[in-house]
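Practice problem: predict the structure.
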Amino acid sequence: MSGFFCLYLNMGHFVYILFSEKLDSYYVGETSNLHNRLKWHNEKEFSKAYSKITDDWAIFYQIDCNDISQARKIEKHIKAMKSRIYFQNLKMHSEISEKLLEKYT
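Answer:
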């Protein structure tokens, strides 16, 4: 399952990748409430975050994690990759996410 429907079934943590068409840029984060977090990014609630520079963020990809610890480890891994191609591969190849979930159990 993916998308917002899964958000209400799994109250764990999420690693998310947002995309802005205006900036042609990605943003990676983690949260326990994806719907609210997206809203906050677009309303520029995070004054010190990179995401404040635009208001058209959309969910590009999400990984449903077991807990905050796992989510933070996966978020750190993804951020370390610093690669648009890696983000796109995550979306195209679900086995990458599965391996990340196994690695950071």
